[in-house]
Specification:
alpha+beta; Chemotaxis protein chec; seven-stranded antiparallel sheet
Length: about 170
């Protein structure tokens, strides 16, 4: 087999496959509840994303994981500062200070990176040969802007009474 044939064959094998919400049937609610309960010991109650209680205002931490291979997309998990700190306190078994007020910013970012990693592994489309990047974590006053992606599935959940946003984005291919 020639090198040219191998390169063509590899390029054809790794073409991104579009996935629709109907084909994919992500059960985001089930996965959000399972991860929040098992990893964090918190209930995850679905919220109406248009309600005031679902709004994440002020400082927030977002964990992002890119998914590649047979499908291109991203999983994004966002929480306000108070919930991000509670997530970190839960992960680091900080029973003396369950609100995480005494934790360093790096601990909070590490915890949100791990949370998106676990959630991403559970909610990425069920296609073969998908790979996930290492988590990226940003802290800002606004949600990440992803202009070359469309929402495939999303939900907002009350965890510890605070909103946790989870979204799966599919890359827009030209």
């Amino acid at each position: 087999m020639s090198m040219e044939h191998c390169a063509t064959h590899d390029a054809q094998e790794h073409k991104a496959t579009p996935v629709s919400a109907e084909e994919d049937a992500l059960d985001l609610d089930r996965e959000a509840r399972a991860v929040c309960e098992s990893l964090l010991g918190m209930d995850a109650v679905p919220l109406d994303p248009e309600s005031d209680e679902a709004a994440i205002v002020g400082k927030q931490t977002a964990g992002l994981i890119q998914v590649g291979g047979g499908w291109l997309g991203m999983v994004v998990v966002r929480a306000g500062d108070e919930l991000s700190r509670a997530v970190a306190a839960s992960m680091f078994a900080n029973d003396d200070n369950p609100d995480g007020a005494d934790l360093e910013e790096n601990d909070v970012r590490d915890a949100m990176g791990e949370l998106v990693n676990v959630i991403g592994g559970r909610v990425k489309p069920p296609l073969p040969d998908l790979i996930m990047s290492l988590p990226m974590v940003i802290t800002s006053e606004a949600a990440p802007y992803l202009p070359m992606a469309k929402v495939l599935s999303s939900g907002v959940y009350a965890c510890n009474g605070k909103p946790l946003s989870i979204a799966v984005y599919q890359a827009k291919l030209r």
